[in-house]
Amino acid sequence: MAPSAEAVDTVEPSSGVAELHAAKREAVDGPSPRATRAQHDKGKLTVRERLDALFDPGTFREIEGLRRHRAQGFGLENRRPYTDGVVTGWGEIDGRKVFVYAHDFRIFGGSLGEAHAEKIHKLMDLAEAAGAPLIGLSDGAGARIQEGVTALAGYGGIFRRNVRASGVIPQISVILGPCAGGAAYSPALTDFTFMVRGTSQMYVTGPDVVRSVTGEEITHEELGGADVHGGASGAAMAVCDDEAECLAEVRYLLSLLPSNNRELPPAVAPADPVDRRTDALARLVPSEPSRAYDVREVIAEIVDDGDCFEVHAGWAPNLVCALARLGGEVVGIVANQPSHLAGVLDIRASEKGARFVQMCDAFSIPLATLVDVPGFLPGRDQEHDGIIRHGAKLLYAYCNATVPRVQLILRKAYGGAYIVMDSRSIGADLSFAWPANEIAVMGAEGAAEVVFRREIAAADDPDEVRARRVKEYRQELMHPYYAAERGLVDDVIDPADTRAVLIDAFATLRAKHASLPSRKHGNPPT
Ligand code: HXC
Q1: pLDDT value at position 1?
Q2: Per-residue pLDDT at 10
Q3: Where is the region Disordered (predicted)?
Q4: Quick check: 500 and 275 in contact, CB under 8 A?
Q5: Cα-only R_g, the chain
Q6: In this structure, are strands 134-140 and 491-492 parallel, antiparallel, or unpaired?
């Protein structure tokens, strides 16, 4: 019924702005102070506190904050909170546009229903269209049980978009609460996954299912906590002590990445002199081939200001992968780590290196490979678990990489591991070696045993013959000049000149443009 003329006269004209602000206030505040307290009591920030910590102040722009689900049944029709449990939008990090979706655990446990999923899909499509990085702040209970198969389909849409955007825009998963079921596959499809000790867990089947299927009692943290994924499984690339540290690390990582695959990583004017001598290197790397040292100290001595972002620090520590700057330009560093397993390549190290090389190549980050490797790890377990196909992944990733690539051999490089660690023969643009260097098919002792076995066995004094042959082999073959004479090493350099030489090499190669034959895609070993 239309209002009477008298009634119309008494209604205050409204611009609707007050109602708009009230609705938005409700969306921003979340369900209740009790739910916020419960979130804090678990040691977690609320979704809005996280966004404040992530973005430059005042830059976050939310979309679909007033979205609500239209599901029926199980009482859902009476509970239709704004946002539907996920906040989506974009903001700036160091002045650069970044897109985010962030679960609000206070609403349906951050679970994913149809409307929630559609918001994420839209945001992902926008991020790809805008050519800007995408961050997912995960704190949710997985598929919204009351919404059944529509929730599962919502995950499918996320996975498909994760894969579509792979190598197009950087995608970062930050796990800040539970991440259960198939939901854990989204982080696995993205470029970087962060976790926080004590508050974030990822698993495909939770402790209850484990108990009912296998009878095993295991806690959430033991099954899929940050240290499990940062160490044993390798599913987390960075593990932090709290959310504030984690979000600060995400900001640092983004400062080293381009916004998309058509841009170059952001360069800065270096405060650290480009011609700084790296005198400490000769002391940091012992000349005796089997003595251990920490290659992270070598990296710190070479790169700008000693700063780097290490990926997978706790997983496969026998290979170090890090992003850093050299002369203000971002580089990806792959280095054997002699302080763990003598720096051998094994299955895990090969997988770690392959993924890192692939990521760097996708985002135009030049590669510096620091080699000090005794070979691949021998043994029944490695062979039976597939070192051949896993080792081939690293080879494949390097051979496919078209970014500028510089190899530096620090001390020793033997056999297949020498080839795989970005030798010139698989496409490194430049290769340098320090003078006290051994490059060979294998160590001198092993070589003498194979080549001179009969002679040693027949000798009156086998030890004398063996020692003489080892010495000969070492003098003839095991020095960088043998490789330098054959063009496999471009120059033998003084370790103190390392930083200047690498910076000059990458500056020279900056305009490198290489392409692979046209094909649908390769068929990498898996
Ligand atoms: C809807 C859910 C929910 C879910 C929790 N809630 N899980 N609502 N769908 N999946 C609700 C709870 O009812 C509760 O609502 C609120 O979220 C908080 O949950 P609590 O259990 O009180 O919180 P907490 O003790 O911190 O435990 C969190 C949890 C637990 C560990 C995540 O809730 C849990 O195990 N939930 C089930 C997880 C799960 O099995 N998800 C499906 C996975 S399979 P009120 O109203 O009380 O606040 C999956 C398939 C994906 O995701 C497939 C992709 C291919």
Answers
A1: 43
A2: 62
A3: 1-42
A4: yes
A5: 28
A6: unpaired
Go through the chain and tell me how many residues it has.
526
Number of other CB atoms surrounding residue 76 within 10 Å: 16
Sign of the CA dihedral 417, 420, 424, 426?
A: positive
Is 203 a pocket residue for ligand 1 (Cβ < 6 Å)? Answer: no
pLDDT tier for residue 183 given thresholds of 50, 70 and 90: confident
CB 178 less than 6 A from any atom of ligand 1? yes
Q: Which residues contact 486 (CB under 8 A, 6 or more apart)?
A: none
Closest atom of ligand 1 to 42 CA is 26
Q: How far apart are CA 484 and CA 472, in angstroms?
A: 19
Q: What is the pTM of this model?
A: 0.94
For the record, the structure tokens of 329 come out as 């330009």
Atom of ligand 1 nearest to the CA of 109: 17
Residues 463/469/472/477 CA torsion (nearest 10 deg): -130
Given pLDDT bands bounded at 50, 70 and 90, which one contains residue 436?
A: confident
Cβ of 144 below 6 Å from ligand 1: yes
| d(CA 114, ligand 1 centre) in Å | 16
What percent of the chain stands above pLDDT 90? Answer: 88
ipTM over 0.95: yes
Count of CA atoms in the C-beta half-sphere (13 A) of 442: 9
Q: Is 179 close to ligand 1, i.e. is its CB under 6 Å away?
A: no
Residue nearest to atom 51 of ligand 1 (CA): 182
Separation of 482 CA from ligand 1 center, angstroms? 63
Which helix (H) or strand (E) element contains residue 439? strand 438-440
**pLDDT greater than 90 at residue 2:** no
- Mean pLDDT along residues 44-49: 98
For residue 110, is pLDDT > 70? yes
Tell me the CB-side half-sphere exposure of residue 201, using CA atoms within 13 A. 20
The alpha carbon of 223 is separated from its chain's Cα centroid by a whole number of angstroms, namely: 22
> What secondary structure does DSSP assign to 293-312, as a single string?
--HHHHHHHHSGGG-EEEES
What are the residues whose beta carbons fall under 8 Å from the beta carbon of 389, sequence distance 6 or more?
A: 525, 526
Q: For position 11, what pLDDT does the model report?
A: 66
Torsion of CA 468, 472, 473, 475, to 10 degrees: 140
